[in-house]
Amino acid sequence: MPELPEVETIKRQLSREIIGKKLEGDKVVGVRRRAKILIIDFTDGSSLIFHLKLTGQLILNGEASKHTRCIFKFDDGSNLVFNDMRKFGWWKKIASTKKLEESFGPEALEVSLTEFKKILSKRPKAKIKALLMDQKAIAGIGNIYSDEILFLSKVRPLRLIVSLMQSEVSSIWANIGRILKRAVKLRGTSERSYVDARGKKGNYLKELKVYRRENKKCFRCGTLIKREKLGSRSAHYCPNCQK
DNA sequence: CAATCGTCCTGCGGGC
DNA sequence: TGCCCGCAGGACGATT
């Protein structure tokens, strides 16, 4: 599922390739990411925005398949193929991204420890994993990376924020940066259908410690990884390492 | 304020 | 072998 590292990877690849090209008469002046949204900016101030949701793909000069929803053609003959097997993803042209940008909390890779503590203090009764995945609180983290961040921080996903010690909060904050940066470096996690803008899989899958590892041995202590429901989602954790 | 449920969708794995 | 069932989940709106 494309989260911050996956969308960031696509953003970086696209910005190298499509800036200066024209799409339906408008010249591309920039490619950005906000939360899990990919933004293509045009000369006239408008933007084309995408949410890949669970199975969306954006592939440069990709080949059309039965999952192809749209093909965007540039003036130089190159194109951008939007595939989405599950059809949850979407795209739209908007005149301004102002409202969109304001609808999200601070970027996960830009939030300071002080800011992070302030965000947590406003939601004492929320579960920590739910907050990490709440785009209005912190933007960019989804199910996979929230599990991984909490494993590294030795904190159970269902812990209430009010119960967290300051040392745990600091650890979670540090690991948000650590894990997301490492995942960007490895071009994301291809757990399901994710591929980058060149159609290649990301390499973070082999670094996953808990996500989708239910009943497998914890790499740290050997205890079997557990899975618990958090709303409609799964939270994976080591019942021994994580308190 | 927090949690839950329904909604969108379809490939895939489990069970028989 | 093949078929059916239900799970997986990001985000949003309505409800409790």
Strand and helix layout:
Layout lengths: L3 H15 L3 E2 L2 E9 L2 E6 L4 E5 L4 E5 L7 E6 L5 E6 L5 E5 L3 H5 L10 H9 L6 H6 L9 H10 L13 H20 L40 E5 L2 E5 L6
Antiparallel strand pairs: 1-2, 2-3, 3-4, 4-8, 5-7, 6-7, 9-10
Helix pairs in contact: 1-6, 5-6
The structure holds a DNA duplex (16 and 16 nucleotides).
Q: How many distinct beta strands?
A: 10
Q: In percent, how much strand structure appears in the residues?
A: 15-25%
Give the class from helix and strand content and strand pairing: alpha+beta
- Secondary-structure element order, N to C: HEEEEEEEEHHHHHEE
The CA-CA distance between the termini, in Å, is 27 Å
How would you sum up this structure in a few lines?
It contains six helices and ten strands. It is of the alpha+beta class.
Could you please describe the fold and organization of this structure?
- The chain is α+β, with helices and mostly antiparallel strands.
- The chain has helices at 4-18, 98-102, 113-121, 128-133, 143-152, 166-185; strands at residues 22-23, 26-34, 37-42, 47-51, 56-60, 68-73, 79-84, 90-94, 226-230, 233-237.
- The strands form 3 sheets. Strands 1-2-3-4-8 form a 5-stranded antiparallel sheet. It has a 3-stranded antiparallel sheet with strand order 5-7-6, with no helix packed on it.
- The longest helix has 20 residues, at 166-185.
- The model has no long low-confidence stretch (mean pLDDT 95).
- The structure holds a DNA duplex (16 and 16 nucleotides).
